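Section 5.1 Outputs to date
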Amino acid sequence: MIGFDRRALSNFGWTLICMTLVLLSLALTNLYSASYQLGLLSFKKHLLWVSIGLVAMISVSFVSYKFIQQYSFHFYVVFVLLLVLVLFVGKEVASSKSWISLGSFGTVQPSEFVKIPIIFVMARLYSDDHWMESYGFVELLKPALVVLVPFILVLLQPDLGTALIILLICGSIILFMGVKKRALLFILVAVVGLSYPTWQFFLKSYQKERIEAFIDPFNDPLGSGYNAIQSQIAIGSGKLTGKGFKSGAQTQLRFLPARHTDFAFSVLAEEWGFLGAISLLLLYFLIILWILDTASRAKDRYSIVVSFGVAAMLFWHVIINVGMVLGILPIIGVPLLIFSYGGSSTLTAMIAMGVVLGIRRRRFHIPDEVVEIR
């Protein structure tokens, strides 16, 4: 199951490791500033999750991708069952029943982890159909079913943000692998056609308020529009170089809500300004670019799709979270992976990057030096 070769160190993805360590350092520094007045509890918890994530990232990179490919559907079924379990015994936080309590160890969010097996299964389906160049409506039924089951279960929690991320990841993979024009037209018509019943029957009242607040946050500045307004004030006040570490008025005077989770980027922009914010976005861009480069170098279709899926997951999290805090997208509770506080989201991202590290490492095949660990 786990393969290790003596010359693997020279082929290891040290670039990704270094960029991840820089990102983690920035995240912990930002979280320290956002939480030090409250006793640093969030900082200490995130430091623990980051440590677990680093160990998981390195460990997963040595797991054979053949093993992952073989058991893709098994992983998928396990996490879908966990999503079902959450609906019955889940812990409700912020109007969403998305967490499973682990007692004194805290909570885990299966809807975050399920993104990885969804990517695995999508890659498995496309690798099994390696002879096809583009996909029509009939061929898309299997991928659609794979997406639809967890999407509905997450939407029932309800967690609109995570459900949307699942759709975007899978939609990106489907477009990347090729879709016939008629099938694409049908999908677009279906999305437009379902928008009204989704608004009327599936969205909760607070979710509708968030979307309405996005259109005009000043219509209810002390209610549904408060978060968006305070976030924009924080970001704008940072100007070019920011107010300095632990010196952001919106952050330290607690005007900025959820400053350690959804609005962590706003804290960074206020304290380190435009230069700090653009540096973080550049770092994410380089990480995503590195993963896409791994996809281009992969030796098989499964590895290509998995790498692209991980890149899509990071990309959409960055786009939606930054769009939220800037006020150009509705606030739907999507974290900035690794940078925002959250054990489940951080561990999910680092496990996913560990899989990509393994794919990158195995593009160099050195059969004489391999030592199998069982």
